[in-house]
Amino acid sequence: MRIAFLGLGHMGLPMAKNLAAAGHEVVGFDVMPAAVEAAREAGLTGADSGTDAAGGASVVFTMFQTGQQVLDAYRGVDGADGLLNVAASGTLFVDCSTIAVDDARAAHELAEAAGHRSLDAPVSGGVVGAENATLAFMVGGSDEDFEAARPLLEAMGRRVVHCGGAGLGQAAKVCNNMILAVSQIAVAEAFVLGERLGLSHQALFDVASNASGQCWALTTNCPVPGPVPSSPANRDYQPGFAGALMSKDLGLAEHAVTSTGVEARMGMLAREVYREFAEGPGAGQDFSGIINTIRARSEEGSR
User: Fold this and answer.
1) pLDDT digits (tens, 9 = 90+) for 248-265
2) Catalytic pick from 173, 192, 242, 256?
């Protein structure tokens, strides 16, 4: 199968490579020339533009930063052709970006109006998951389109869940990341509290990881070095999943909370904590680095 993959960043390139490893012809494009060159060096075919990549492809994957970028790429800007204009009729568009539910539904509508098929399929698992083909995909769209895309998603991920109709993959992602943000802050606060009480990191981990405090933020993304050797804390909080991306995703959660009127005090507090984190050095650190902010503020409070 000929597949176009647009957006060859830290997540997109390893995802595209896994599709190629599964035997597909992958044509990649990114607005950064260095990313296209990296794709060529990895054995993929590099395209000169997104529309060049999409022409003749059976499936078009997109992995962008914002909903506006997805919509602009689909319909084109300033009179230029968009992806939907150049793709053969009935092409399956799979957007793996993390964007607002409203933008995802708008992308579905654009694709269907142009005679194409569409799925929103945001991912969880970070760079490590992309590299190891262990991502989780949360998919929104029709049953038929989901089944058509499933073998491709399974080539890139370990868990593929059909969440319902258009936009519901993004809905699942925004809910999941709100849980993750709250739990990562709670785990960090507990470790700082344990430090103040004289409890070793390992002792707290051994207890909480086998008790009711067990969660992904503890057992995979442990915010202190030692207990989980593969966690970002062991490499000076190199992401991973950067604080800037968590802040962005919580902005999407804030939009969803506001539009639905849901009472979500913990989620919105996490939004504020990560917004401040991302305004400083935390933007380029793994989001588990929030523990350093908690330590610093605890020191200030004890003076």
Assistant:
1) 999 999 999 999 999 999
2) 173
